[in-house]
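[retry 2/3] Malonyl-[acyl-carrier protein] O-methyltransferase: previous attempt timed out, resubmitting with same input.
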Amino acid sequence: MVATRIVSLDDSDLYYIPETLKPGINGIDFSLFLPMVGMMTNKAMNCFKKDGPEGYGYDEMPPEVIDILDARTADPDTTVKALTVPVMEHTRSLTTILDLGCGAGHISRALSKCFPGPDIYAVDYCEVAITKALSKTQDVKNVKFLKENVTSLPAAWTRKFDWVILYDVLHDLPDHVNAMKEVDRVLKNDGVASIVDPDVHSKHRDNIGNNNVAGVGFALSALICLPCSLSTDGASGHGVGWGSENKEQFLTSSGWRVKDKRNIGDTKIVLPYRHGSRIVYYPDTFLDIIIQINWTDFP
Ligand SMILES: C[S@@+](CC[C@H](N)C(=O)[O-])C[C@H]1O[C@@H](n2cnc3c(N)ncnc32)[C@H](O)[C@@H]1O
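[retry 2/3] Malonyl-[acyl-carrier protein] O-methyltransferase: success.
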């Protein structure tokens, strides 16, 4: 770990975590995750065997993984507020919100606090996630947790939602193409979609020296994200290494448009366009936020 600079040594040979690794370390409680690592490593190693599975989904992971992920955002209220700002710039009103791949619901609960009025639907294909989410939200009135697959949402949801959120989900999906088709279908014509995903370069050479990607991105992706995105026949196999540039290329080539990109607090903007659809894109320290806006009279 010291040799790769994932852990550093000070002048008196004390070990410390370098500042550059802290965004990712702070993003998940690794002390809770450590007991899972042995179990998950064995599962991941099986995928390398000739006759082994190609991957595994969340419903095949230890149920504690869902709890760890649910606890990883120290302040989900602030995260939701950060997500909300650009959405409210372009949206007249929010009456229906969809949290896709909601896990045990930490973002859904924060959404409910921030938006007590709208109907919030939160879906995940993993039974354990939905059961945990339900047990944590007994006093939350406007969130419906449902077991659904992102790639085949209910037919009755066509053009139902003002805002669709995929928080740390897109790079996990074995079938991102059909998932984004479904997002497009369930969004109202003037709806907005936000995608929060790891901020890693697709050209892996460009990640050299990024301890955060090496120490946190690799560990989580190898055991969780990559196996999940390999968990069905014909799966995409992306994981965290898919990277922001390739993700953006996929989105734009399938008809979505990048409206702008910015780091929260440090704005960079690009403006490629297609009719009708726009994406606002926010790379954060470890997570990107990409916001697609179907907003016909957007300037
Ligand atoms: C990294 S977790 C993020 C969970 C939650 N959004 C959060 O931030 O805590 C990814 C989630 O996506 C869900 N997921 C993966 N593939 C899915 C699919 N095809 N349909 C619905 N949910 C899916 C997993 O079960 C898991 O809960």
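[retry 2/3] Malonyl-[acyl-carrier protein] O-methyltransferase: The longest strand covers residues 187-198.
[retry 2/3] clearing retry counter.
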